[in-house]
# Entry
Amino acid sequence: MYVASESAIPINVALYWIKYMINQKTHMEPTLTSQSSSYNTINGQDFKKLVEASLRWLKANQQLVNSLNVFPVPDGDTGTNMLLTMQAAYNEIANSEETNIGKVAKDVAQGALMGARGNSGVILSQIWRGFARVLDNLPEMDAQIFSRALSESRNTAYKGVVRPVEGTILTVIKDISLAVETYVTRSSDLVEILDVAVKTADESVKYTPELLPILKTAGVVDSGGKGLFFLFEGMQRLIQKLPLDEGAVVIKDLTSIKFAETLEVVEDGQDVEVVIDFTPNDKLDLETFYNDLGKIGTSIQVGEGDGLYRMHIHTETAKQDEPEVLIKSMGKISKIYKEDLRDQMKRIEEKKKELEIKEITPGTIAVVVVSPGPGLSQIFVSQGAAAIVTGGQTMNPSIEEILKSFEDLPTDKVIILPNNKNVILAANSAKALSVKNVAVIPTRNVSQGISAILRWNPDGDFQQIVDDMNDSLDEADCGEITTATRSVEINGVEVEEGKIIGLLNGKLVFSSSSVEETCLGLLEKTDMEMRERITLFYGANITEEEVTTISEKIKEKYPDHEIELHNGGQPHYQLIISIE
Amino acid sequence: MTSSDNPIGSVYISHRSIASIASQSALESYGIVGLASKNLASGLSQVLTKDPVLGVDVFFDDTSVSIDLYIIVEYGTRIKSVADNVSEFVKYQIERTTGLTVKQVNVHVRGLRISNTD
# Structure
């Protein structure tokens, strides 16, 4: 067993901390309740709060971590896997009153082990395991022990693999532990050491593309390493009393922030949506701007395009003029838009109701469709879908959601159209869990889904229809047009972040700066002589006028083809093109 | 041996090539500390000759490949997650490098290496 060595506390550090504690104000965030006058040591309860902060901060940044995959369309799950692992870890101590840090850490490690999901989750569980081993049964942790625990984290993590790949979460924990080992000889203040850890993690993550070429090609940093960074930064933010539930400031593309932003929940007291377009006088300091807005309301988004900024916020009625005042002080306003959120909610509710699904005749064949947007749902319903599950790219429905959608249908013959390659697995799992006779047609996109549902006949022979639908999969090409989320080179096509890319049957084939050009380029890559109809489903992030112009251009180029336009309302994809 | 045709000839990929890819990928996979042979006799000669296909069996049918992996896992990791990860990674690497379809990756955990018992 390890015995802690007594370390003298420098007087100036102690004074600094006394000052710090006095300056603390009461705050909504949980604060460390160290009994001693400094953070030269922390106990089990403090540690619990730090772990909770890590978890919350990772949760706030989960999507950002997920988006760090090596393909230009987001479909990663590292963030989710790490979050689920951390959640399992925290669940072990959530109700614990234990003050012995060794015992708390042991429970965290145990929880992480049991809940480890995915590669990064397994590595994270090893990091915790090493950490807990050093804390063993100690009542408190000081800087020396912290440093030794991190080193053991690193050693344990590296032991789990024969050929460690550098440029991953492993490199990041290694760099952190080395930096802390060095720094601990100079300071015994845990807060300072944590700052060093966070700073090192940040640098280390930024350097990962230099070590792992696949990251560099895709233009991303390592997702697992970034996740680990957020865990450390969460702890730091708790100490600095920064909010933990709003994710990092991400500058979005201007067009991605719509004036009538769709929303699912309105927070209590937040009644007004304010959107302001403005040109700042000086270069905008996002951090400060974001913090200022944070005092006014929630759901903050900031977008930029050609020097013009757009700010989006939800606020209470009494504060609805404050964003305007704030922005006036820093730049020129070109447009202000305000809307009552309650009205907006009502409209959305009404829109949802419009989707009227006809009840199926008991005993007939029911088709369950996974649809990425309201317009597309409408189309599927008009073709006879018995149930719709909302979902698609980056919002995969759970197995449970799929299962629930057809469990209550008055029939035991069910066909599922997943319409996305990431949903096929969930659909198959739902099939395995159901007692009904379920068939999953592996439709990888919406066009295949539409071709398949056209083969549906409620009273036909189940197996025959399933076969027909499976045969239909090759009869349509699917084009997808979306905005690249980062710079990348794939299939010899070079893509810059923000460019419009065209995917034909899931493969990147074309990139340009306009939707129109990409659309035409994509059609050129398709074997158009074999096809006779082009159906365009336009998404929530493009206007009808733009699409009409594009369809006219297509008509000019392919006068013999039939062209149809539908409002698909799907997110992320400007256009989904079905070519039959 | 599997083959695929292209306009100017055929491409043959041997069991051993695929087994090598599988074994390299497995060893890069987190939580796996080694591969183990299926039985002692063949294992002994494989260990002595440093055979790159130790602990990997490859089966072909007409269009796809199935892999059996015999692995040793680090004690203290969640074995199920490690097994899931390695099968996914091996499948991905083989499909990416050879263009073949991998139908199955069966993972056999032959043992655990205990570095720390906690």
Summary: DSSP finds 21 helices and 19 strands in chain A. Residues 29 and 179 of chain A are 29 Å apart (CA to CA).
